[in-house]
Amino acid sequence: MHVVKKIEIFSDSVELGKIISALERGGVSSYTVIRNVAGKGVRGGVFDDSAVTMLDNAYVIAFCSPDILKSVVEIVRPILNKFGGSCFISDVMEIRTMKCVSSL
């Protein structure tokens, strides 16, 4: 096991392309996007009652090595400052697997 950084971003779906592009420019090679998320934050509730998908919120989860985190944050922060959104970063442990075994 080794330490990696987990990056979680909540943002408008409209800005999703900019955020994904920023992550890739920063060196993040893989990520997961969950669209149409709902919840409540400091600015109030965000609910899934809109028929317009452009106004939905999205959740992006990505992992990267600690040595590229600073550059990723420097690229993502201006986008969130301009368009809104939240970003959380935490330390997590990754278990790397080397072989896929069909039966144990």
From TrEMBL:
SUPFAM superfamilies per record: GlnB-like
Record InterPro entries: N-reg_PII (IPR002187), N-reg_PII-like_a/b (IPR011322), N-reg_PII/ATP_PRibTrfase_C (IPR015867)
UniProt-listed Gene3D superfamilies: 3.30.70.120
Protein name, per record: P-II family nitrogen regulator
Organism lineage string: Bacteria, Bacillati, Cyanobacteriota, Cyanophyceae, Leptolyngbyales
